[in-house]
Specification:
With 511 residues, the protein is of the alpha/beta class. The chain has three domains: 3-110, 3-Layer(aba) Sandwich (Rossmann fold); 115-346, UDP-N-acetylmuramoyl-L-alanine:D-glutamate ligase; 355-504, Protein-Tyrosine Phosphatase, Chain A (Alpha-Beta Complex). Helix content is 38%, strand content 18%. It is built from 20 helices and 20 strands. Helix 7 (142-155) crosses helix 14, helix 7 packs across helix 15 (337-346) and helix 9 (189-196) packs across helix 11. The longest helix has 26 residues, at 481-506.
């Protein structure tokens, strides 16, 4: 297809008929893309190694064609289809043969986010304009910040929806007949890599954007730490109003400095210190905005206090940073400080995010199973210094040496889980030999988490905190980070119940 025609496809109301699109992958994202494209009148071929029974049944119903089977090597069905565009689900890495085939044959590569941006005018606001987009990425804290931002916007009177990597495809939000004022879009580095491949016609122009932090992650997918960093930096491209960055993470500041943004866009910093005149931060225990007010040289606006956040279970340092970032994004859309204060009073974290699952007999049990990389685990360890640290799992090619040498060295003890334990044990031997280390070997009597709880209670023997912050993915022993966290909580509850039964049996009343 002529590239000029692709450049005209920047509206739901454009002529999409006859466009040949190969959709790679049939997960939730792939299905939403296929469903959208067929509704637009495009000719769609979906190629996937496997598919759920429901999606496989629905693809021909919506008017697309499905080819199931291996995609390595590149299947003849893809080559024979001769697509005008290849739209890939985020799981397809740049090195995948189908992606390389598209690049070598100069077939444009889209992700679902680019398609959503192109058709964002399907449902418009009262003035006829599509919803503003706010983009959120970072190695850690994306989902919490996305939820926070959406909550602040809604409390401020805006119709806002969290979507993207958070679990609701952007295309579903764009096509929602109710319509929105703002889409708060969580973006993974995988999605951002595909956005980075877009032509000028498909480039996003967000109202505001943030990269919360940067630490090595998904290095196998991207091929290098630099490639991962460059993908994250795409979030700031073409930002119109506010590029929000983490003052305590120099990488995010550099991204903003290098970004090609719309003239007039402001750099807005945040951290846990005293804010400058274009920042959000903390003064004497008060969370304040010195960015979005006229007299920001000499004044600040109060948003909440650390005492109030502590009462709501939101006072862990990295959670406060997420709150500052979300508040900056909301303030860029003119949400009043009073609305932010009200929203924070009612906000609660999702399960498995630094969640206190129980406090019993002097032991606090904390589930941060969502801490699937070293950066996230370091934040948890800083929130609970001196904890018994439950660590390990699928390391995804990441070295834990630096984490163990720094934050890990403050742990009271470590309990190492996972199939891939030797790199973790070796890191403790080399960098934190003073920390007692215990190992849960697959095949030990009982479930992994039952053994963790048994070991932890023996280590604490009194008051203390046991922190599940694995710094690794869960798929070596569990179905997901949520499954890992829930099994931890179940094992803790079983321990409490056993203790209660023992107390009852030994009490005078029981005699």
């Amino acid at each position: 297809m002529n590239a000029n025609r692709l450049d005209t496809l920047t509206s739901w109301h454009a002529d999409w008929s006859g466009l040949r699109v190969a959709v790679l992958g049939l997960s939730m994202t792939g299905f939403s893309a296929a469903d959208t494209l067929t509704e637009l009148g495009a000719e769609v071929l979906v190629l996937s190694e496997d598919a759920s029974e429901e999606y496989a049944r629905l693809i021909p119903v919506i008017g697309a064609r499905l080819e199931l089977g291996a995609l390595d090597p590149v299947p003849a069905a893809l080559i024979d289809f001769a697509p005008d565009v290849v739209l890939a689900s985020p799981g397809f890495a740049p090195a995948h043969p189908a992606i390389r085939w598209a690049q070598e044959n100069e077939v444009p590569l889209w992700g679902d986010v680019e398609l959503a941006w192109r058709v964002r005018d399907k449902v418009t606001r009262a003035d006829g304009t599509p919803a503003d987009w706010v983009l959120i990425t970072g190695t850690n804290g994306k989902t919490t910040t996305t939820q926070l931002t959406a909550s602040l916007l809604v409390e401020g009177g805006l119709r806002a929806a969290p979507c993207g990597n958070i679990g609701v495809p952007v295309l579903d939000a764009v096509r929602d007949p109710a319509g929105f004022d703002v889409l708060v879009v969580e973006l993974s580095s995988h999605q951002l890599w595909y956005i980075g491949q877009s032509s000028q016609a498909g480039q996003l122009v967000p109202h505001a954007s943030v990269c919360l932090n940067l630490a090595d992650d998904h290095l196998v997918w991207h091929g290098s730490a630099r490639a991962y960093r460059d993908a994250k930096a795409v979030v700031y491209r073409n930002t119109r109003v506010a590029c929000v960055y983490n003052k305590s993470d120099a990488a995010t500041m550099e991204m903003v400095e290098e970004a090609d943004v719309v003239e007039g866009a402001r750099a807005i910093g945040f951290d846990l210190g005293t804010p400058g005149p274009s920042d959000l931060g903390i003064v004497d225990g008060i969370v304040v905005d010195r960015a979005f007010l006229d007299d920001r040289r000499t004044s600040a606006l109060e948003l909440t206090t650390l005492d109030e956040l502590r009462a709501a279970g939101l006072a862990a340092p990295h959670i406060v940073q997420n709150i500052l970032a979300a508040a900056a994004l909301a303030r860029s859309l003119e949400v009043a400080p009073e609305a932010i204060h009200r929203a924070l009073q009612g906000f609660r974290l999702d399960a498995h995010r630094i969640q206190v699952v129980a406090e019993h007999r002097g032991i606090r049990w904390v589930d941060d199973s969502k801490a699937t990389n070293p950066h996230a685990a370091a934040s948890s360890l800083r929130a609970y210094p001196g904890a018994v640290w439950v660590v390990g799992g699928d390391l995804k090619g990441v070295d834990l040496s630096e984490l163990v040498a720094t934050a890990g060295g403050t742990a009271r003890a470590a309990i190492v889980i996972g199939v891939e334990r030797e790199p973790v044990l070796g890191a403790f031997r080399r960098h934190a030999s003073h920390v007692p280390v215990f190992e849960v070997v697959p095949g030990d009597t009982g479930e992994v988490m039952d053994r963790v709880v048994e070991l932890a209670t023996g280590i604490v023997d009194g008051e203390g905190t046991v922190l599940l912050a694995p710094a690794a993915a869960s798929f070596d022993q569990f179905t997901s980070y949520a499954d890992r966290g829930e099994r931890f909580a179940q094992a803790v509850r079983a321990w409490i119940e056993r203790g209660s039964a023992d107390d009852a049996d030994g009490s005078p009343a029981a005699d």
